[in-house]
Amino acid sequence: RRVLVLNGPNLGRLGSRQPTIYGSTTHAELVSLCEQAGRELGLDVQVRQSDSEADLLHWLHEAADEQLPVVLNAGAFTHTSVALRDAAAARTAPLVEVHISNVHAREPFRHHSYLSAVASGVIVGLGIEGYVLALSWISSVGRDR
Ligand code: DQA
């Protein structure tokens, strides 16, 4: 089963970007980690990253059209984008919102997510392991949601 892992703005810079907050794993390594988890879970995982809101919207439309589960780290768009929320709300397959850092322990503007209310669930603050946990949930419980 195909699953989309969608990463938003600045996440392509993982590894060099504020490593004390986001860790030293690069985006390329995150891609390998997700693909490996997918192989173990029997999922065809496709990882995509864009700094453009439009790309993320189009990928969410694709997920809605093809009923694909989604793991979404929308980066800062989490806290700003009604458009991404609307696209996420229009799907039927599971969507797990992931944040590498514990956004609730950071600045107040990171405490609100436009996405959480329309997500199946949220994983926050568990580092890049959050992506693996989200894929694991999708492969088991999330299959029928
Ligand atoms: C993030 C948290 C956001 O607040 C931030 O803008 C990001 C990354 C995370 O994964 O911790 O870009 O989504």
Automatic annotation (TrEMBL):
Top-rank taxon, per record: Bacteria
Catalytic reactions of this protein: 3-dehydroquinate = 3-dehydroshikimate + H2O
Keywords in alphabetical order: Amino-acid biosynthesis, Aromatic amino acid biosynthesis, Lyase, Membrane, Transmembrane, Transmembrane helix
Entry's transmembrane regions: 114-138
Active-site positions on this chain: 22 (proton acceptor), 99 (proton donor)
This protein's pathway: Metabolic intermediate biosynthesis; chorismate biosynthesis; chorismate from D-erythrose 4-phosphate and phosphoenolpyruvate: step 3/7
EC main group: lyase
EC number in record: 4.2.1.10
Site (Transition state stabilizer): 17
Coiled coil stretches, renumbered: none
GO molecular function terms listed in the Swiss-Prot or TrEMBL record: 3-dehydroquinate dehydratase activity
Family membership noted in the UniProt record: Belongs to the type-II 3-dehydroquinase family.
Subunit structure: Homododecamer.
Function: Catalyzes a trans-dehydration via an enolate intermediate.
Designated name of the protein: 3-dehydroquinate dehydratase
High-level lineage: Bacteria, Bacillati, Actinomycetota, Actinomycetes, Jatrophihabitantales
Gene name, Swiss-Prot/TrEMBL: aroQ
Positions spanned in the full protein: 34 to 178 of 178
